[in-house]
UniProtKB/TrEMBL annotation:
A single MF term (Gene Ontology): protein histidine kinase activity
Keywords linked to the UniProt accession: Kinase, Transferase, Two-component regulatory system
Domain of life where this protein originates: Bacteria
Enzyme Commission code(s) on record: 2.7.13.3
InterPro entries: HATPase_C_sf, HATPase_dom, Sensor_HK_TwoCompSys
The reaction(s) this protein catalyses: ATP + protein L-histidine = ADP + protein N-phospho-L-histidine
Biological processes per GO annotation: phosphorelay signal transduction system
Keyword Acetylation part of the UniProt annotation: no
Protein name (record): histidine kinase
Entry keyword annotation includes Kinase: yes
Domain Histidine kinase/HSP90-like ATPase as annotated: residue spans: 46-133
Length: 134
């Protein structure tokens, strides 16, 4: 049996997290725009954790709903967004759970920002923007 190799960068980690989500029965539509590149270590770790938390939340709160995951690279930032319909039996009471608070703290510690909430279309959207070093 071959040993499992851990992903070594954000792109590989993201692909692995998406694969695991799909293998567990989830639906993910992934869109990557811009030119991916290496990230500083702290930003790489934060980006991995953001994707992990977004997919975990989607599976937990709306398990039968598809997730639109967007990763956008620009000159000065990396933006990660996830949107999914709210589950049929679960509403959104407002506020952020522990996981979203944690990734919000990671984003802000790197000079980024996190927004999360219900959309007018009864979807839940989370967006994290991380600045990239020049």
């Amino acid at each position: 049996m071959a040993a499992l190799r851990a992903p070594t960068g954000f792109g590989e980690s993201m692909a692995e997290l998406v694969r695991v989500h799909r293998d567990s029965g989830g639906t993910v539509q992934l869109e990557v725009t811009g030119a991916p590149r290496s990230l500083p270590e702290q930003a790489d770790q934060a980006a991995r954790r953001v994707v992990q938390e977004l997919l975990t939340n989607a599976r937990k709160h709306a398990p039968d709903q598809p997730v639109d995951l967007e990763v956008s690279w620009s000159t000065g930032s990396l933006t990660i967004s996830a949107t999914n319909p709210l589950g049929p039996e679960r509403g959104y009471a407002g506020g952020l759970g522990q996981g979203l608070r944690g990734i919000g703290e990671r984003c802000r510690a790197l000079g980024g920002r996190l927004s999360a909430g219900r959309t007018p279309d009864d979807e839940f959207t989370v967006t994290c923007s991380l600045p990239l070093e020049a």
